[in-house]
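Question: I have long wanted to understand how a fold can be written as tokens. Here is the record:
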Amino acid sequence: QVQLVESGGGLVQPGGSLRVSCVASGRMFSTYAMAWYRQAPGKQRELVAIISNRGATTYANSAKGRFTISRDDAKSTVYLQMNNLKPEDTAVYYCKIAQSGIWGQGTLVTVSS
């Protein structure tokens, strides 16, 4: 069973930047499309961005122009670079193998002054 482990969350001021990471176990990472989701307090989990196994990317409207998803297959890692963060970006951020039910445990991002 593949395992996903997120890291990099924390407290950041509005307008700041943060990069979260997700490392996958196993040797098949390069074949997976990967996704980042987030769940804010009291809200449903929502898709943030997807990257295909070939590097094609898709973003939610809330992430366009501020967030960048990328991957490093040699490190079995997918990243989410978040710039110009807003308080409404506060959420637990989860990575997922896109066409599977495999999720990481999440990492909390708090945007507050």
